[in-house]
Sequence to fold (343 residues):
Amino acid sequence: MADNRERLLRVRDILLTTDEDHPITSQQILAELDSVGVACDRKAVLRDIEALTDYGMDILPCTDNKKGFFLAGRDFEDWELKVLIDAVHSANFLTEKQTAALTKKLARQASRSSAETLSAVPQSPSPVKIGRGETSAVIDRILKAIRRKKKVHFLYTYTGGDLATKYRHSMQTEPVSPYALIWQHDKYYLIGNWSGASPFSYYRLDRIHGLELSDEDAVPLESLLPDGEAGLRTYIDENICATSGKRVRIMLEGSEDMTDTVLDAFGDNAEIRWDGKNIRCTVKTNENKGLYRWLMQYAESLKIVSPKHIQEGVKERLRAALAVYEGEHEYYRNEPPAEEEKP
Fold:
């Protein structure tokens, strides 16, 4: 025999499956309770609905009282759940199993009918899933380290030409001070300060192995940036590529049809002027291999006006690319491979 507390919880769970288009009557609630061995009368159900309403659940009666009740308000609207589910499917650092589990949890936040619709509507195409299953533990430990202001140490991996996983050991012997986790370009990154890095480095979570908290205190963020967290947010916003580097101010010139391309990359950080024929853009970002790759994509449509060394850097890469295809040059190397040790 169920007590009143169990009955109240079961009535709540039943109401969570409803919505405006799929209400439920007190008699139907009684039938569902009876199916799980909870016996009561209609007055008890109505009292439970009143108690849940007083507690804060947005339970409303239908205009036609014969149709019963429904839950009118939820933490997430259907469109919000759709966006979150698509984000989960787009996250290639999650395994297929983690993706399915998170999708199921999110769908449970909707009514039964909406959950069925969310499951039936095709999700965003899933990229190749490269997560190793360790991601959830790594995220938990990083958040704990940030909260406790402790450094973390880990092995950082890369894939060799033989497709074998190889390791860089510097982060194992020299712990990293963690400050943020960000999602850029369908990848999750840890932003931290490593000995010798100035001021931040980016580490892809799917390449982090065996992360553990250190007993060593993290370097205070304020000692790297005078305005602390606000400065870090600006640093992230102005960096289009998840790679550290020296801050630079770049002026670009191009045709009008490149306006959206610049805004997609830099957003409000781009200052754009239109002279009636071409655009002139000023952006602040980090100078790194990712920036040069972005500039190379649009080399025929966006000209670098300044600074001179960025302009020369792109020219050098363009000459190297041409030489490769003419058989006169080795492949351009953005950086030499790091020395490796076996873990």
Observations:
- Residues 339-343 have pLDDT under 50 and may be disordered.
